[in-house]
């Protein structure tokens, strides 16, 4: 069916394949309710809802039922809001204070084991410890370093579209078994029954602009659409092969990628560009993950409000972070809560580094109050990498409030 008018209560329940999925067909990371949510706000979605196969739904549920930790039932009746705070909080950010932060981390749970997959280097460097012969994006020697330009966007890899044939002729192959040996060892040693998230950075748009530069690629959508489609098809096929190979060689439960398609003031490009170039390719990657029995998690900074209905339509399971100050969190939760799992992210620009510990705690409570629902659908983490200017007492307030308030908030639903 098409939702062309609204997400009114009357629309829910007309078919088991509405956004409110039938209780027998649910996944753990998708909402399943015996009573459909009342959505007061009218939303002109104009998207087709594509149900996922019942056997896949059951497979995903059975996969997660094996995990003894809190994430096993986050779209059911979790005992507390799942915490993934460690994933965006790294040792290099805090310098001499890291031991204090690490001591705090050891006191609180990390409900997901995330493992980074081995993606290609830009250029071959035999001196790199992660060097794998023939596993790079560029078949050319690296250019000499610029004497003036800085920043990733200043170093364009495909300077002219005439280079595309040679680049694609030497395209990296992610199906090589040796690429997954270390990850398999890490999972075996440290997963401890937790949900395992297989991760890599740079999915579609981020990979595009690393090849062409951001200014170039934004023009290329209009000036060289055929070439862009060809390159994006190759990137999509690589991502799908990476998903299938990871599922074959590793015991994972979900796929996580980054793809910043929003700015603080709005999307990176128009909805028309998204629908032509990105939507069908995201759909292919999401479906590949689902076919492998894996959930799909997407990190994208910025205001992505116009894209969310489309991402939900094509099967995205988890979205991160709903960036603070870029969208109205309460509006997003009202319009899309129950249709996708929010991996909500603490603001790392203002509140966490510059607020007081009490302001940090207040923001944690606001996040949980906004996104958590009776049947779950909310996980908590940082909105991006935690920076070194975050006071240790603020880090403690973040971890402590996420745990205790997440526990208290869930208690009301028992």
TrEMBL record:
Uroporphyrinogen decarboxylase (URO-D) domain location: 212-403
One GO molecular-function entry: uroporphyrinogen decarboxylase activity
TM stretches of this protein: none
One annotated GO biological process: porphyrin-containing compound biosynthetic process
Pfam family name, one: URO-D
PANTHER family (UniProt xref): METHYLCOBAMIDE:COM METHYLTRANSFERASE MTBA
Protein name in the entry: Uroporphyrinogen decarboxylase (URO-D) domain-containing protein
Organism annotation: candidate division WOR-3 bacterium
The organism's taxonomic lineage, starting at the top: Bacteria, Bacteria division WOR-3
């Amino acid at each position: 069916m098409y939702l062309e008018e609204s997400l009114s209560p009357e629309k829910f329940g007309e078919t088991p394949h509405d956004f409110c999925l039938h209780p027998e067909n649910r996944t753990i990371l998708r909402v399943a309710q015996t009573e459909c949510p009342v959505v007061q706000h009218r939303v002109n979605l104009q998207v087709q809802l594509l149900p996922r196969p019942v056997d896949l739904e059951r497979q995903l549920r059975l996969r997660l039922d094996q995990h003894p930790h809190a994430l096993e039932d986050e779209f059911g009746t979790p005992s507390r809001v799942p915490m993934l705070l460690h994933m965006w909080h790294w040792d290099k950010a805090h310098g001499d204070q890291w031991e204090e932060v690490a001591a705090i981390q050891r006191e609180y749970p990390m409900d997901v084991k995330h493992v980074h997959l081995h993606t290609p280097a830009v250029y071959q460097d035999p001196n790199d410890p992660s060097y794998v012969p023939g596993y790079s994006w560029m078949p050319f020697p690296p250019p000499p370093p610029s004497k003036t330009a800085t920043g990733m966007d200043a170093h364009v890899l495909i300077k002219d579209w005439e280079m595309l044939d040679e680049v694609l002729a030497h395209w990296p192959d992610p199906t090589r078994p040796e690429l997954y040996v270390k990850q398999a060892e890490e999972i075996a040693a440290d997963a401890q029954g937790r949900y395992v998230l297989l991760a890599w950075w740079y999915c579609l748009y981020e990979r595009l602009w690393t090849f062409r530069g951001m200014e170039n690629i934004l023009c290329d959508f209009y000036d060289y659409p055929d070439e862009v489609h060809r390159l994006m098809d190759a990137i999509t096929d690589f991502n799908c092969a990476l998903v299938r190979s990871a599922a074959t060689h590793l015991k994972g439960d979900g796929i996580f990628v980054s793809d910043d398609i929003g700015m603080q003031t709005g999307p990176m490009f128009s909805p028309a560009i998204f629908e032509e170039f990105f939507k069908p390719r995201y759909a292919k990657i999401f479906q590949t993950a689902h076919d492998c029995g894996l959930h799909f998690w997407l990190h994208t900074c910025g205001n992505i409000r116009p894209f969310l209905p489309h991402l939900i339509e094509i099967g995205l399971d988890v979205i991160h972070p709903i960036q603070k100050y870029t969208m109205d969190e309460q509006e997003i939760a009202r319009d899309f809560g129950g249709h996708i799992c929010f991996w909500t992210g603490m603001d790392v620009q203002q509140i966490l580094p510059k607020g007081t510990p009490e302001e940090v705690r207040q923001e944690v409570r606001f996040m949980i109050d906004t996104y958590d629902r009776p049947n779950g659908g909310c996980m908590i983490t940082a909105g991006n990498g935690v920076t070194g200017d975050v006071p240790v007492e603020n880090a403690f307030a973040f971890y402590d409030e996420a745990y205790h308030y997440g526990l208290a908030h869930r208690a009301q639903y028992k």
